Amino acid sequence: MAKRHNDHLPISDILKEFVETNKLQSGLDKVDVRDAWAKMMGNGVNNYTTEVKLDKDTLYVSLTSSVLREELSYGKEKIMNMLNESIGKDVVKKLVLR
Known about the structure:
Blueprint: H1 11-21, H2 25-46, E1 49-55, E2 58-63, H3 66-73, H4 76-87, E3 94-97
Parallel strand pairs: 2-3
Antiparallel strand pairs: 1-2
Helix pairs in contact: 2-4
């Protein structure tokens, strides 16, 4: 971590610098995407979701229901847009439903 430039820095600036210095942003994005999936899709879909994994810019979602997987496949673009909007940045570029 860099030395202090000023004694009165906002905590948000200090945390941003810490995340950048330690290259933690990709890990934080993975957590944000999992939380966004759970929040955006609701309990109905979450009951059939076994795994949500972000690998680079591809989101892999494992589902136990083939019917639900097929239904969600029709709205992949909309789901990606909703997740990216919820996170606040363009993290998910491809969605793979398994």
